Amino acid sequence: MLWCLSATRRALALHTQLENLCKQLYETTDTATRLQAEKALVEFTNSPDCLSKCQLLLERGSSSYSQLLAATCLTKLVSRTNNPLPLEQRIDIRNYVLNYLATRPKLATFVTQALIQLYARITKLGWFDCQKDEYVFRNVITDVTRFLQDSVEHCIIGVTILSQLTNEINQADTTHPLTKHRKIASSFRDSSLFDIFTLSCNLLKQASGKNLNLNDESQHGLLMQLLKLTHNCLNFDFIGTSTDESSDDLCTVQIPTSWRSGNLCSNPSLFSSSSVRRSLFNNAERAKFLSHLVDGVKRILENPQSLSDPNNYHEFCRLLARLKSNYQLGELVKVENYPEVIRLIANFTVTSLQHWEFAPNSVHYLLSLWQRLAASVPYVKATEPHMLETYTPEVTKAYITSRLESVHIILRDGLEDPLDDTGLVQQQLDQLSTIGRCEYEKTCALLVQLFDQSAQSYQELLQSATASPMDVAVQEGRLTWLVYIIGAVIGGRVSFASTDEQDAMDGELVCRVLQLMNLTDSRLAQAGNEKLELAMLSFFEQFRKIYIGDQVQKSSKLYRRLSEVLGLNDETMVLSVFIGKIITNLKYWGRCEPITSKTLQLLNDLSIGYPFQKSCGKLVKLSAVQFMLNNHTSEHFSFLGINNQSNLTDMRCRTTFYTALGRLLMVDLGEDEDQYEQFMLPLTAAFETVAQMFSTNTFNEQERTLVGLVRDLRGIAFAFNAKTSFMMLFEWIYPSYMPILQRAIELWYHDPACTTPVLKLMAELVHNRYEPPATAWVPKDQVYALKLKGISICFSMLKAALSGSYVNFGVFRLYGDDALDNALQTFIKLLLSIPHSDLLDYPKLSQSYYSLLEVLTQDHMNFIASLEPHVIMYILSSISEGLTALDTMVCTGCCSCLDHIVTYLFKQLSRSTKKRTTPLTQESDRFLHIMQQHPEMIQQMLSTVLNIIIFEDCRNQWSMSRPLLGLILLNEKYFSDLRNSIVNSQPPEKQQAMHLCFENLMEGIERNLLTKNRDRSVCTKNVRLGRAPSLTQSPGVSNPCSSPGLDCGARFGRTPRPEGGGNRRGG
Length: 1067
Hints:
mainly alpha; 48 helices; 0% strand
């Protein structure tokens, strides 16, 4: 008795302690106290008796925070993949949670949500768990029915359970294989989702038939949860495409055909309903469905009071955009109320644009709607009027005038300027370019009127001695918007068939912008406006795309107008204006990185045409271009100077500059070494300066000088794509200056701002190897920038050197040259310094690694076979993970690597069983021994490959099938067991068909890996025979490779790093 009393007291003390820790974690403002409480609670969640303690907290907890802790810990327990909870225990937890929610309907909202999340997680992970031949976690509607038959609070909990469960099953997590997730989601879709959706629609109908009091919190909450449940059902990933809301254009709800009876027309989730796939209906049904949608839009626009809420407004704008992306203009105009609806939408758009400060992120969807409508005008075949010629000019005018009117308010009130976000501005202008080209005469007349007004006011203010800076800034802001918009509408010429009259209108606009440029350039010595200069560069880029190049007719009325107004008679004179502006910007804005970068990009774009565009030849003949080719020094271009205040990464624009100069130099270079030497004089002087500093150990600014120099050389190396010019560069840099680069790597190995440019230069040259930078500990959040990026470049460099056919590598061993062996051993050292988890988390690293590994397994398999066992297992594990990568390039490379390895293994194994005078090499014999010691690695990859080919939508099926024959021949017994397991896991009525598929797979296949045998095996006909009936004709086929009884090892999910974005299936 005393022992029981003592245990009770200990339990109560523990309970009190946990409640106090929860309060400290969630309520205290003292950071130290919160951290200490967090540490103690982490220890609690990892303790062996956590389960019983969680039940104690739920039973006796007086604080909502302790209940939240218990629910969170239980969710963590049921989610773990190692040492999972027994089935009976999970069933008990599920039942306990349901009873707990039923008896406590008024818990804190976040506690209820956490418990519902726990129920959803248990249900999802146990979806295929059976007890006495019954799926114990699938009776979700039965579990919820008792909630729906009780009070409003209970109904809210029941609907929330279904909503959260639908959302939980729809989302893949990183701790479980993607194949298991898709298997669960597909089964849930086929067995339960439609019933849940039907239930939600029926409940909504019942609610709409009652006079609900939405001011009542409970009734309002119930209706919100019903709508959320319906939305989650329609947003379910029916076909495994994993779309998200960042890709609205591609977001189509792939509702199964069997759902046609679900009466979608009555569904209030308008946005999701508007995204339903077109093929779900026949023509008559689609027209009726569209009519319902348009009628709903009309009623909202006639009573827009609810749109004052920003969230409602945003979703409604998305709905409008989806109307056109999912339906053709020819279908819309046939809707009964189309004239009235298009008028209401136009008025709504105009009003929204005029109130630019309200929900600015929603403007994208409105402009997207009108852009699509305007782009469809030339293709409409319906006889009904579309009326866009009436309303698109109104939308264009509203956008332009609202942007101009916003300038004064933004400057006066110090608001955030939209012009600061050039990405957003460019996105909107791309949409406006199409809208403005519809009824272009009206757009052009409006722009000419507004531009003339602002330009005249601006010129008067500049000439006035009493003009206020605010007035000048306002006019500069208005002109900035106008220049951006003029560039956009000129760029929109590609969207429509243009006429001579419209080219003449473009000429009017271009003349005005060039006149403004002359005015602003004349004042740069005194003052300049950065945003206006960026707008000018945007205009020049659009003008270049449309009116510069051999495809443009020089008889265009635009050139006639330029000749009449500005005396620019031909394209050469227009190009001289471009180059003049480029030189002016580099002279006056050399310390402004955004302007310098965009200016150099414009120069680079002009130079890209060589040798296919005659305009490049015209460029080189210009005196301004010759000036740049002969005077590319910091004296004339300040951005080439060394500024101790600037960051080393700011020198990236130098590469762009020298890429453009290199292309222009190549136009007339030929084999003229004197011209080349003259061009390289400034770079020669820079190298000599760095060499002198190294020799005297005077480390002043040589690091910055060297970084700038190698960025310059990388640009030249990139541009010199002809053999003659490239050899000039190579002979100039090697061997004279290569020791300087090597010395720099040795000296600044710890600084990626220095090593990365040097490595990138070497990657361009790909003819040299050098000692890689020493490894050192780096912070986890900087590991890519400081370490992995440089290693990735080294991998790319070595791959290019090995696959470039520069030399026969057999001669290295013949002459005792260890350069190749040193390079390959360096690769292994670099590889082993990378944690396994990083190889697929960073896309650039994974692509460079697997492409190099493909070359090594193809041409240097003897080297791979000679490696230590732990290195071989590391490489094989990386191939196994790469097979399931989302990146097709990585997956295909892994298939090729695996094919080379199993082919090598099979050949060596075949040789070892035959009587030969020449024994196996030591490397081959050891490699075979290692593989015999670890057969599970090859077996695992066989399971993975077969699993992907049969059960997934494999986009590279040919590549994936290449290693399959070799894997089967190396593991015939395992393949037989795997085949039987797959067949037996199917429903009885499909087992015979699946067995026949496997028979077809190996029909007529001999036991060798000759090309002829491969080509008639799994690589072509037989894989298709084995796949089609089992997958495409049997949607209910289950996937045995994710069942507990078969250790396929098909997925290795991990959380992707933010820098890399991730490269895994299921991750």
